# Entry
Amino acid sequence: MDETIRHHNPNPLLTANPISKLFFWWLNPTFSAGYKRRLEVEDLYNVTKEDSSEELGNRLEREWEKEIKKQETGGEPSLLKALIRMFGVEYMLLGIIVFIEEGTKVVQPLLLGQLIRYFTPESTVSERDAYLYAMGVSLCAIVLAVSHHPYFFGVQRIGMRMRVACCSLLYRKSLRLSNTALGQTTTGQIVNLMSNDVNRFDTAAIFLHYLWVGPCQAIPVLIILWQELGPSTLAGFVVLLLLVPVQSWMGKLFSKLRHKTAIHTDERVKVMNEIITGMRVIKMYCWEKPFGELVTKLRKIEIRYIWRSALISGEMTTFWMLGPRIMYICVIVPATLSGQPLTPSALYTCLPLLYLLAHSVFGGLFLAIQNISQFLVSQKRAKKFLLLDELKAEKPVMGIRPQIRDCSVKIDNLTAKWDEKIDQPTLKNISVDVGHGKLLAVIGPVGAGKSSLLMSVLKEIPVSEGNVTVKGRIAYISQQAWVFSASLRQNIVFGNAFDNKKYNRVLKACALHKDMDMMPQGDSTLIGDRGVSLSGGQRARVSLARALYMDADIYLLDDPLSAVDAAVGRHLFENVIQGVLKSKPVILVTHQLQFLAEADEVLILKDGECLGKGTFEEMASSGVDFSSLLKTDKEEEEDHDEEERILRQRLDSHMSRSPGPSDVGSTFSLASIGTEFQPEPVQLPEEEDRREGTIGWKVYFNYFKAGSGIFSFTILVLLNLLAQTAYVMSDWWLSIWSNQEENRHYMIQQDLALRDLGHNITNITIPYVDTHQNIYIFSGIIGAVFLFGILRALMFFKVAVDASMNLHNSMFNRLLRVPIMFFDTNPVGRVLNRFSKDTGHMDDILPITFFDFIQCFLLILGIVLVVCIVNPWVFIPLFPLCIVFYITRTYHIRTSRHIKRLEGTTRSPVFSHLSASLQGLHSIRAFAVQEKFTEEFDNHQDLHSEAWFMFLSTSRWLAVRLDWICGIFVTVVALLSVLMAKDMDAGKVGLSLTYAMTLMGMFQWAVRQSAEVENQMISVERVLDYSRLDTEAELESTKDRKPPSDWPQEGEIKGENMCLQYNKAGPLVLKHLSFCIKGREKIGIVGRTGAGKSSLIAMLFRLTEPTGKVFLDDVNIQEIGLHDLRKQISIIPQDPVLFTGALRKNLDPFGNHDDPHLWNALEEVQMKSAIEELPGGLEAEVSEGGINFSVGQRQLICLARAILRKNRVLMIDEATANVDPRTDELIQKTIREKFRQCTVLTIAHRLNTIMDSDRVLVLDEGNIVEFNQPYLLLQNEDGYFYRMVQQTGNTEADHLLEVARDCYQADITGIIPRLSSVHDDERKSNKLGSNVKLNDSVFDADTSNISYADEPNDEEKKKVEVNGEEEPIVGNGDVAVDEESGISSPSALESDVAFEAQPLLAVSDREKPIRTVDPVEGDLTEGDSKVEDDEEEELSRLLPNGAVRDNSPKKTHL
# Structure
């Protein structure tokens, strides 16, 4: 689907000649380009067919299927065997190259031994032979340079193929996982499996050949050593044989530790995935601390195993350096004690061979065991995942698509349940038949099984009884709209052929045209991971558009209308369900009951059973309790006691508020509402940063600073220097000792020769050599090498592990404090990459690589110094060689750095695609686009493979050239040694040439390790980048700004010229808002999708910092700590978020409440019985994302959280969008009871949830366009709110108007009985003016005879300014803007206008005496009753907007 990741750049390896392949000349154009400019994705070479993810995935899948068949005969499937069948032959052929290389290493010391004989006294080797031997040593070095790199390139490429093949197989498996299997694994675990575990496949095969090369090498080495040193050679071999099982045991221990580490890493990554996904909820609930403690706890456990693994790695790496020294002492000491002369020729024949053997065992063998043990652990984990339960694949029906009239869904007596262990079925005895052109509406309370019914059609839920027959292709829209990271067009077209006409029809039907026009790149705009740049309504419409574009035969719609407002919902119903889909079978799960009358059939579910089925009319008259779901007074008698109780609660709520001028609302008569659906600004996801240039020294400084202080770092440096000094001294002392032994042996031979000639006395002085003293000194030096080597390793790995732990903690702590905008603009995969891959590098790869580099670097430094001291002439050719080396490395590192960073950035989309696929798994399977998504995954993998292949190739390009430089260095040292033979002794020549030969492989390894360290330090740099992200304001207030402990008492919210934008370059989302919400007031917030409703909540929580001023009980919330603010506000979020773990932790992570309180809260939201049925009750485990609860149940649990918090301010962000009307009613009832002393702000698409609000705030494009009582807003037929209500349909609109009128009546009848008189002097003070409003206080008086005044004529309308824009308003007199509310209203100064200009109420005189207000006398009479002085202010809240008092002596009828 994502065409942008494809590019055409054929791989030159396919056409390169053998010489070019041998020396990697085919990479020269890449290095030339990389040196001049930054390399981009387009510069990467396309993967070859044998490296492509699709090809490898297909091959491994076929091999794995063969293994799966073994289960039928009782066998055990083996992923390892499948991999061996795929790559075994190719890998075995590479063993020939290893054999040639290792054979050359055995021959080279023999030639060296012969060359050293030239430097001994009375040598029989001629100068010509010496030059030949020197050339032979040089030629061996060149053979090693030529043979080494094709082998390593080959095995690393095989490792890459194994990894790619396994990732492709794992992804294909993840698309087939059953829901049971999904409960047994998590997204984080799968990501970790593909990011960390399969990386072991890359290194698994590199050293495997050394398992047989080592023993084969040992046989000729033993023979040669026996000839040179005699039987004492066996002592060294015994030690070697004893150390092999030790190495093996340490390898197994390392494997166990790695396995345990992987388990804990899985857990941490899983939690991190949840934290990143749910960060908005974590911030609003102030849960940073408990989640921080959870991650810290998990990280400590993980670090414990990492530290133990690091200890073993350090000890085994130290053996690589100490192993040869141990063998030296075990071979040389017995030989000298047995009288065997330690001559330089014998010594320097044996030492390289012992060094070679030790490296084969301690280096190659150890690395083989270590890598294989890690690989076996990883492949076991991969195999366990591959053996998880999967959905039974339906055989695709081949042939022509059925005719539209033949398409249908038939469910016959279906019983099904998600979990086989639970007795209660999810669905029981359900029968449905949906044919051509039929619309089935499915309704029912939360947890009734509505979504499960759709899942049964999709074959997702295991069927116990009955059957489901589907004829036709299915399209499915999930309850929580699924959008993946791609362009808008790619999300809609979904990999199908693009048809412009059909595409535009779909956009029009889904009302997406205007939204698309506002996007910077139109429908090519990248909308980001999980659709973060879109509003909830836009995501729902994009999801719906995708289904329409698929042009399927059958449509399953899981409540798509709940995420959009009433106007858009009506448009979608008429244009999509009744329009585009009118001829197709449609099953619509909905809570929008206004659409039921237009459905062909209605199915009512409860507890998985069918309560009723039939047409709307049949159901309404069938006796089934259906009318209560509609909640209309016309069809059901209200329970009067309940109504009175609610009225009393409303009265309590309103009477506890203090009235004031800010209670003023306004009703606007708008000439035009404009276009029906307006676009909204889109936030674009940011591209991942890719740095340029070298890794600065500050990164290294910060790395070591994180792991050590000045003292410990100084100790580390000293230990490294002491260990290297002791290492060089051991070889130097052997050189001196062998020269002494050579001279002594030569003098003895001379003396014996003279005596054989008959001389009784000779003038030859035989030098005294204290062999025991030399043994003691040599043993002491070896002991120092061992001691300092071990201490160095322990110290370094302690510093490295501490650095990793501290850097991770620093990054995580900063991540908890970054603004929420960061998570909206960065995909989960990108952020998670830092906590999985980058942290994994710091934990595992960087320490061992860095330590290895330091060892090699110090060793090389020692070698060069020794060689130059022995033969100063070497300095002359060394200088130009160093210049060539520097130029080569600099030339390489610039390109290598680009490629490594490209490798990092091309890796993130692989995990983002995986994460998105798992989120939309049901949709992918419903649309049957698994193959397309697999192809997309393979494309992402191929792009990453291109970068990885280039990284491997460029590493070898450098290594070949460095080995040639070393080959030249060996040749120069050998020839100069022969040339300067007169000034050199055998011991020093042996030492310098042995060291030079050692340099051969080590130099290029060290340089490559230095480049690798720099590349790995990119992970540290990326972690440090996240450790420096900009943070939110402080969590806690300063002492002088700390709000009182009992704040807020009222819950009054004021905004003054408040604006909000998500980034500096972005548009204003909220524009110059001024408003006042009184304490304990219930405010409904409505507006079209994207009008700024949720942004208002983001502003009040300071998720994004607003400009202007916002006060909560006269405290400026921008001046206090975030936790001081957020702890005082409860939120029921739009998307209910649950975290894995115990349900108790989801309700009360701080442990502030005991069990009775928790059960009481659950009982309040009708969830107690459901939770009691779960195993464990409050300790029941919540699955990842809370998928073991329905969306509605998750909302109820979020409501229970809010009840437990007991705050003065409650915000509800479309919390009832995903619940049925009964549950909605339950939530509203709970809110009225539990939060009647609170200020409640409710964002709702369901207008019935806010019709009984005190006031309704209407937003449009970030402006407040209306703010008044619902009933008064409905009197303006040109108003926004009126139009929104009318969009719900005539029946629902009448119902909503009736609800609003009842609440308005309740307000009036509650105030009037308490008004007795109005004093004239107070009347004249203009307190009773037109800038007062009727608040919806609740009263007790009879309202049966109250009628309502008509709207004024058009000529009575005036202009009023709101938020900087002129709007018409009903009323008389001048216009005044209330400073506190920011809502303009008619002037209170015009007190001479007749009150009759807008009559408010008229009471029938048939049953009630006329009550009059005499404006002159200020008397309100009913009999002789008078209004008390202190109640005039109540009257100021009585008159509706636009009503004014008349000071003339006329009577006003109430």
